[in-house]
Known about the structure:
By secondary structure, the chain is mostly helical.
Amino acid sequence: MSVIFAFVLGYSSMFTSGSKLLLNIYPVTAGLSVIGFRGYNPAVGNMFNPSLSVVSLILTAFLTFCIVVSTTQTEKTQRKTKSKPRRGW
């Protein structure tokens, strides 16, 4: 399932890289714009907005942190009960 998700994520980044706004907001292409990937190409280099890309990456990291924290708390709050052994079937 993760392989399919990674493929769809990478494939969709090819289409978002054509838009100036989506290039800087979409996390995969935002990371590439922060490191200056293809910055030598004037057609692409002029589309980069590193400050917007950094904000997008920080928001993505914060959302990921919130999801991880919320899932670990629900596992801790569940009670572990032993089921009584059944006889027969």
